[in-house]
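Quick one: structure tokens for this chain, please?
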Amino acid sequence: MSLNFIRTDVRQELHSKALYYLDQGFSVALVTLVNVEGSAPYPLGSQMLVSSEGEYVGQITGGCAEQAIADQACMAIKDRENRTQRYGMGSTFFDIQLPCGSGIDVHIDVTKRYLDFKNVASALENRRPVTEKIVSSIGSFDKTYHPNQRLVLLGQGPILIACAKIGLQAGFDLLCIAQNELTSALLAQHGLVSTSLSNCPDLSNICDEYTGVVSLFHEHEHETTLLAQALESNAYYIGALGSRRTHCQRLDALLNHGIDRGGLERIYGPVGVNISAKTPSQIAVAVVAQAIDELNIKHFSS
């Protein structure tokens, strides 16, 4: 069965974009943030990809120096020579200042070839992380590329719709499992494809360590089997909508289903960070925020 994951357009995978540029006959430079003095809007290891035509994707300074970095990358491509460039505090570019007052160093690599990008892109497409060593004139460090984060949304109603919209904006790929035709129709109105509950795949087979699961059922008898499957998987996050009383009933049902008590501790219920959310959109913000928090703790914390 093919899975109807909706691809986010927020988090672009740079290696696949590099292959696109190379297939068009352009050269590319991969730019990496290799040093930060002070504070910076993006963490060490953040990257941009720049084509020989000056087009770029990715962010390093949040808009302060991206164009200047792209210009330097084009020069490096033309000279066929890697370089490390300073921006902000201590830079020779006096007209480019970072609002935080910090200084950063970026490494511009023009030596990567098609196969280098292809190997990483293929691994990520197959949901495998890849670690490469970034070597610059000021030192080296290991850079890990992770498969894109995913959310499986199960259930019905306006909260599911809002979670889908906010999840895409936050950079998640989505699989929406709609309980009924009305929810499918509402998703379709927003250009979002869905899978029916009767065609839901076995979650234990599709949820990896970069996939979160959120149960948004109103009739909770539908969720026991699906949550049990999620608990059998490597899903990094599992949340379920409902009151504290409903959550206790949910846990009892899962115990009767054969799930041990230790496994039940993986379920966040009631789902979402506590922001006293009232509306579907507010609840969706709380849910996606919790999914992001867990993702960053487990995969991106230093």
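The mean pLDDT is 92.
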